[in-house]
Amino acid sequence: MSKITTELLLERAVPRSTRLRKIETLNLSKLQLKTGDLDPRLFSRLRHLQKLDLSDNLLDKFPNSLTLPDLRVLNCNNNKLEDVTALKQFPLLEELTYENNVYLTLNDDYKVIFLLQNLRLLNGKDITKLANQVRRVNSRKLTSKVTAHWEKFFRDQLPEKHTAEQVKSIKKKFLESVQTNVVYGPSSLSEFTRWRVKMIAEEFLSYSLGLELNTDPEPEEKMDENEDESAESPREAAEDVAQHAFQVTVTPGKRKRKHSKPRSRKKRSKSQANTKEEAAEDVSAEPLHFLQCHSKGNSREDFKTQLWSCVFEPLLDCGARKDPIVSSSRTVATCGGESVCLIDCETGTVLKKYKVATEEFFSVAWTTLTMVISDSRKKSHNILAAAGRRGIVKLIHVAADFCYGEIKAHKKPIATVCFSPTQETHLFTASYDKRIALWDIGIPDCDYNFKASQLLVLETLSIPLRLALVPPCPDQYLLAGCEDGCFAWDIKLDKEQKNRPFEAMFQFPDEDGAMTSSHRVDGLAFLNDDVVVSKSSKPGCIYLWSWSRSFDAKAKGCQRTVSAVMLAELEWSKTDLSYLTLSTCPAKAYVFCGDENGSVWMYNLSNYTTAWSSAKGKRSDKRIPPTQILQWPELRANGEQLSEVLVNNVVSDPTFTYLVVLTSVNVTAIWKKS
C-alpha cells in the first residue's frame, strides 16, 4: 500500500485543506518516500499546487507523469536523486533546490537550467546570467558545430533516393560520431555537452533533413567526467587554513639529547598543549607538529572528524627544488571528513586545502602525468586522486590549484584507491559495492579536457578494504584485503574477459592455530618484492608471509584456496578494534602500525629479510617485538586533554625522514626521525 493517501495530502497541506484541487502548498518532507510512492493518478488531482516540499526522503528519480501544471517551487534536498531530466514536466518551475543528492553534479545543474526555461533560483542562487549562457550561447555554438560535422563528414553519405534502412544506418553513425567528436567548454561539463549534442543532432536530422526523430525515452548515459563541486577553491581554502587550522606545540619532558626548538604558530590557535613523556635515550623520532586542519566548517572545536589516508607526493625533479638537501618529498596529502590537505612536514604549513561539503574522503593517491602545456611542450605534473563516501573520484592538478574533473566510479562508497606504478593513468578503485574497478583516467590536454574509461571489474565476495599491487609484476596481479579474507586477481589486460573473479583466496592461522580464510584483513602492504605484511582479526598479531611461495602452491595444487606461507608474526596490540591499518617503508625494511591508544608500533626488520628471501627461508618461531613504540603525548586543546585517540593510519616518506600519523580525533601528528 502506498504511503501517500488522499487523507495524508489533505493533512500535510499548508494550511490544511478539505479538497485536493484547493491545495497550493504541500509539505511531504521526512516521510521516507520512495519513487514508487508518488502515484501520478493521485498527484494529477493537485491541479493548483504551486509549492511542493519533498526534502529528506529516499527518492532516486521522478515519475514522468506527475501532472502538476502550476508548480512553481520544488524542494528535493536530501534525497538520492540520480537524474533530473524528468523535471521538464514542470515547465512553470521558478525555484528548485536539490542539495545533498550525492549523485547529482554540475552537469545536472546545466540540464535543469536548459530544460526549465522559467527557472530563476537553483539551490538558492540566482541563475539568470548563467541561464542565458546555457540556453542561448551554448546552444548556438553546439548547433553550429553539429551542423558543420554533418556537412563535412555525412552529407555525401546519404543518397538522394534512400531507403529506410539507409536512413537508420546513417542516423546511428552520425549520432555516435557527433557525440564523440563535438566538444565545447571544459571536460568537466562533458556529460552535459554530450547530452545536448545528442538532442541537437536529433532535432537537426528531424527538422532540417526530414529524418525521423527518435522520441523514445532512453536511459541516461552515465559519464565519467563531472564538475568539481568544491565548496571553496583550493587557493581560498589554503588562505582560510592559515587562520583557522591550529598546531599543537609539544613540550618534551626530560631527555638526554638535544631538541630542535618548536616553531611558533601563534596565528593558528589560542589552544595550548602540554606533554608528559617518559624519558627514553633511544627514541629514534621526535614529535614535530600536531595539526587540526580537517575540521568541518573550519571549526576549532571539531575533535570528531576521522582522518583516514595519507600519501607523500612523488618528486618530479630533485635538482630543481629550492632546497637541495631534500632528497625525498616532504609534502604529504591527507584526507578525512570533507577535506583533502597538502602539508609541508618540515614546517607544518598547510599548503593547500580542497573541500567538498557533501563528501567524506576515505582515500588519496598520487600519480605523475606527462601533460602537453600551452606551447605544445610536454611537462610532468603530479595529479592527486581523492575518493570517499559518494563513490566519486576527484582529480586534482595540485600545482594549478584546480580540480579538473571527476569520475563517477561507483554508486557506493570507495574504501581505497591506488595508482599503478608502471601505467601512470591506471587507477584502481575499491568500493563498498564489492567491486574493484580499474580505470584509465586519461591525460588532460592544456584545456583540461580528458576522457576516462573503465578497463576491468574485479568481483569480490565482501567489501575490499586495502589494495596492494605485486611489486615484481604490478601489471599482472593485485592483492586485496577484504572484510572476509585476502584475495588475488589476474589483472593482465591481454585477456578479453572484463569482469573477473578472484584467482586465489589465502588462508591464515586463527586464534586456535587452525587455518581459515574467513577473517577481516584491514591492513595490507608489501615489505619488499616478496614479503607481504597483513593484519587481520586475530588480536595482537601482524602476519608476514611469502607471496611467491603462497601463489606457487596455488598453481601446483590447481586450487583457488591456498594457505599463506608464513614467515613471521609481529607482536602488536591486543585490541579487537578494526580498521587501524599498517604501512611499510621498503627502502628501510620498516613496518608501522598504530593502535587504540594513539601509539605507533615500529618494526625494523632489516635483520630478517635476507633469511626470508632464501628458497628455504625458515619461519621465525617467536613473535617479533616492536623495535620501538612511539607513545602518544598528553595533548591539551582548549584546556581539555584529548583522550581515546585511535591511530587510523601511519605512513612514512620513502626515506623514513618523516612519519605522519592520522587519528580519530581530527589531529594529524608529524614525527621526524632523529
Automatic annotation (TrEMBL):
Compositionally biased tracts (Basic residues): 253-270
Family per record: Belongs to the LRWD1 family.
Domain called Leucine-rich repeat and WD repeat-containing protein 1 LRR: residue spans: 7-200
PANTHER family, per the entry: LEUCINE-RICH REPEAT AND WD REPEAT-CONTAINING PROTEIN 1 (PTHR24370:SF10), OPTICIN (PTHR24370)
Region Disordered, residue ranges: 213-281
GO terms of biological process kind: chromatin organization; DNA replication; establishment of protein localization to chromatin
Feature: compositional bias, Basic and acidic residues: 232-242
Pfam families, per database record: LRR_LRWD1, WD_LRWD1
Database matches in Gene3D superfamilies: Ribonuclease Inhibitor, YVTN repeat-like/Quinoprotein amine dehydrogenase
Presence of keyword Repeat: yes
Annotated SMART domains: WD40
GO molecular function per UniProt: chromatin binding
Ranges in coiled-coil conformation: none
Any one Gene Ontology cellular component term annotated for this protein: chromosome, telomeric region
Signal peptide interval: none
Ranges for domain Leucine-rich repeat and WD repeat-containing protein 1 WD: 284-673
Taxonomic source organism: Aegotheles bennettii
InterPro entries listed in its UniProt record: Leu-rich_rpt, LRR_dom_sf, LRR_LRWD1_dom, LRWD1, WD40/YVTN_repeat-like_dom_sf, WD40_repeat_CS, WD40_repeat_dom_sf, WD40_rpt
Gene coding for it: Lrwd1
Keywords assigned: Centromere, Chromatin regulator, Chromosome, Cytoplasm, Cytoskeleton, DNA replication, Kinetochore, Leucine-rich repeat, Nucleus, Repeat, Telomere, WD repeat
Per-repeat ranges for WD: 407-441
Keyword Thylakoid listed: no
Ranges annotated as biased composition (Acidic residues): 215-231
Name recorded for this polypeptide: Leucine-rich repeat and WD repeat-containing protein 1
Subcellular location: Chromosome, Centromere, Kinetochore; Chromosome, Telomere; Cytoplasm, Cytoskeleton, Microtubule organizing center, Centrosome; Nucleus
